[in-house]
Predict the 3D structure of the following.
Amino acid sequence: MRTALLALVCLSLISATVSAQNIVVPGDADGDMIVSDKELELAEQSCDEGKITSDELEEIRHIHEAYPITIVDSANRVVTIYKPVERIIIQPTSSYEPIWILGAQDRVVGVTNTAKDLAYTWLPGIQNKSAIGEYNELDYEKIIELNPDIALVSNSGIETKKIDEILEPSGITVVGAEFVELETFDSELKNIAEILEAEERAEDFLAWRNEYINSVKEKTNEIDPRVRVYGEWAHVERATGGKTSAIDSTIKVAGGDNIAGDLDEYWIVLDPEFIMTENPEVIFFAAWEDMLGLTGYYVDNYEGAMQFVESATNRTDLKDTSAVQNGGVYVLDAGCVLTSARNFVPTLYLAKWFYPDRFEDLDPEAVHKEYFEKWLGIPYQGVWAYPQASARSREWQG
């Protein structure tokens, strides 16, 4: 019996045992996707006999000691990882920066055209990755061909379930991880860091990031009343975010009061009368680089943003607001606002614009530069906010 089991272990190391979920776990002889004490002992014997290499044994020993890892993902699903994650594909556009922050970019084997050709043309190494279709229209055949260990997908329950049903039979573990809400970023990053065994990098980043967020909260917690703010997705007139949206969380953490914050819709197009009645004191436009060209990594001047603001402030629904009358109209990069890995940076800009006297020494641009260079590993450049907000500066022309 022992001889037969040993032969089965050796076979699993060579051709891999296919479990009920088609997940291959080195050293797993009985198909339960776990390397037991007995299976490790037999693998050690196989190594002594020259049937497997010392590197293969070390991999099996690591799996025995560290796996399985079970998390509750962002779609509120229990997900178990049975072996080290070496190959990743990413669906949500907002989930790319967190993987680069964790230093796992070399494990990414598939990216969407949305990320590769539009949102993240500048992200180091992304152009060398295989395309897996669009964010909202994945090429499942290509994904299966790439044979990833995990697929990071949208938090939407229906969407996650659909993708899981397609990919799970091929042994691909689907993990919900969208990274949109600023308040849930810490838990999402810790989850992904755990299954990528990158916990130390995650803790270092969170300590750095949260120092700025906590500083803003401390200086704005007691403010009452708060400045009234209207945030608009610049590519759709009067489109904003209600409860739990990226716009809403960014405004709130910065110490503002979102005029649409009591609305249940994540995305909503407001009536002109609503905006005029709420009379925001600050207005900002979140602009997508590929749609308007006002902001982005390769934008090198403020002309587009200046012209956009000039035109917007003449709109019937905005021109008589306190924001327009007092010069409180701004532009932020929409990618910064949407992805919770980086939307603490727009929070710094907004806090400085909302309460310049409280944040006169805050330099959002310097923080943003450090984020690019230290955590993404790329030189900082581009236009990400208009007007620019440097320490002790609130000049309209930046």
Q: What stands out?
A: The two ends are 77 Å apart (CA to CA). The chain has three domains: 2-67, 71-197, 201-386.
